[in-house]
């Protein structure tokens, strides 16, 4: 899912301080050049830069200078620009609930009605804490194996909360790193943010230690929980600590199969590019026929130019595994390790370009269809980086 994310303010209650991803970028005159917020009323300075009212109030009287270029301006030369909500609502946006799992890409004015009925948001099972789409939660609950072990669930819940907190801290750490590397560094702000992050980490460490002591009295329950869990839906927890994971959905898989069985040599199902562990990459599904008329599926991955490339390790050296997910039983998942050794595959991508791609070993269409990997004309694929 591409697009540009903005925080809105000054409109109705539903949109107030709401982060929304727009299909197309908004005009620069609608966006505060300092904080990036899209306000209902912005202020245009003579130099051409735009401020929201909150940022404008931070300019002390007598020091009327643009915070971006330092040019002085007269208060009377500032132009007020109003952004009517009726105009804002004509712009197309993506779903704020389901993200890339939801196909909604409609008018902002239709977003509120869509959100009320959208079931593509991620939720956690109240029994086992597995993450899944809300649209499959009831089906999962009927077959969840964790109902008979409430004591162990409490420990699982603590771990799930800790994982969420760690993810939040990782995002905050990335923001601190970006701020520290900018040309205009506010050292005090960086130090304050770093101290706040350290305090959160200390609290999390203390909570995990307390949970570990409490769980020692119920370790006898663990063997019963170690059996394989049959998971409904193509959504999995991480296979091990320290891995990064994301999901791709390849729609209209039967149309691709039909195309190659009617004479077309190969058919490619493409998706939007995505980011994982900071790396930008895309994944395609290539369907092709062999001389013996067997139909094969290959998954093709390539690294591309990303916003965080300057902060990442190059050449790319992470272990990559492509996983075709079974919709009901994770024990049937097809795990395909990728070998990325060619320098043209793992080098730092040039601006606005993609590296050479790498393809998985082939999976037969017979295995995919016969063993039930197709769900509503789609195949789900997970990519893990370790």
Summarize the structure in words.
By secondary structure, this protein is an alpha+beta fold. It has three domains: 4-117, Herpes Virus-1 (2-Layer Sandwich); 125-225; 244-385, Apoptosis, Tumor Necrosis Factor Receptor Associated Protein 2, Chain A (Sandwich), CATH 2.60.210. It is built from ten helices and 20 strands. It has helices spanning 53-56, 85-88, 111-117, 137-143, 150-181, 187-215, 222-225, 253-261, 343-346, 365-370, and strands spanning 4-9, 19-22, 37-39, 41-44, 50-52, 79-82, 92-94, 105-107, 122-124, 131-133, 244-251, 266-269, 274-276, 279-289, 295-304, 320-324, 334-338, 358-359, 363-364, 378-385. A hairpin with a 6-residue loop joins β9 and β10 (131-133). Residues 149-154 and 217-234 have low confidence and may be disordered.
Notable features of this structure?
386 residues, alpha+beta, Herpes Virus-1, Apoptosis, Tumor Necrosis Factor Receptor Associated Protein 2, Chain A, 3 domains, 27% helix, globular
Concise synopsis of the structure shown:
By secondary structure, this protein is of the alpha+beta class. It folds into three domains: 4-117, Zinc/RING finger domain, C3HC4 (zinc finger) (Herpes Virus-1, 2-Layer Sandwich); 125-225; 244-385, Apoptosis, Tumor Necrosis Factor Receptor Associated Protein 2, Chain A (Sandwich).
């Amino acid at each position: 899912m591409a697009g540009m994310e903005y925080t809105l303010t000054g409109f109705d209650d539903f949109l107030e301080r709401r982060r929304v991803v727009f299909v197309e970028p908004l005009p620069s005159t609608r966006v505060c050049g300092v904080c990036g917020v899209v306000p209902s009323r912005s202020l245009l300075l003579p130099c051409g830069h735009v401020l929201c009212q909150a940022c404008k109030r931070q300019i002390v009287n007598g020091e009327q200078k643009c915070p971006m270029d330092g040019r002085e301006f007269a208060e009377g030369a500032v132009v007020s620009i109003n952004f009517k909500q009726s105009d804002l609502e004509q712009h197309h946006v993506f779903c704020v609930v389901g993200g890339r799992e939801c196909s909604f890409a409609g008018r902002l004015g239709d977003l509120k009605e869509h959100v009320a009925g959208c079931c593509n948001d991620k939720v956690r099972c109240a029994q086992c804490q597995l993450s899944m789409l809300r649209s499959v939660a009831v089906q999962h609950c009927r077959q969840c194996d964790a109902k008979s072990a409430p004591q162990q669930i409490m420990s699982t819940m603590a771990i799930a909360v800790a994982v969420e907190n760690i993810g939040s801290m990782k995002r905050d750490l990335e923001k601190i790193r970006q701020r520290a590397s900018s040309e205009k560094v506010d050292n005090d702000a960086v130090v304050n943010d770093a101290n706040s992050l350290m305090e959160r980490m200390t609290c999390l460490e203390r909570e995990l230690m307390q949970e570990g002591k409490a769980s020692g009295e119920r370790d006898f329950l663990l063997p019963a929980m170690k059996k394989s869990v049959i998971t409904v839906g193509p959504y999995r927890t991480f296979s091990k600590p320290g891995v990064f994971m994301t999901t791709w959905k390849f729609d209209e898989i039967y149309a691709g199969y039909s195309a190659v069985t009617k004479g077309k040599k190969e058919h490619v199902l493409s998706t939007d590019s995505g980011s994982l562990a900071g790396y930008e990459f895309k994944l395609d599904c290539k369907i092709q026929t062999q001389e013996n008329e067997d139909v094969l599926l290959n998954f093709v991955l390539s690294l591309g130019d990303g916003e965080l490339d300057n902060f990442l390790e190059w050449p790319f050296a992470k272990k990559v595994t492509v996983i075709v997910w079974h919709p009901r039983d994770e024990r049937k998942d097809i795990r395909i390790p990728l070998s990325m050794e060619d320098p043209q595959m793992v080098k730092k991508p040039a601006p606005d370009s993609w590296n050479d791609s790498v393809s998985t070993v082939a999976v037969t269409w017979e295995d995919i269809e016969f063993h039930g990997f197709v769900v509503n004309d789609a195949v789900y694929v997970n990519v893990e980086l370790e």
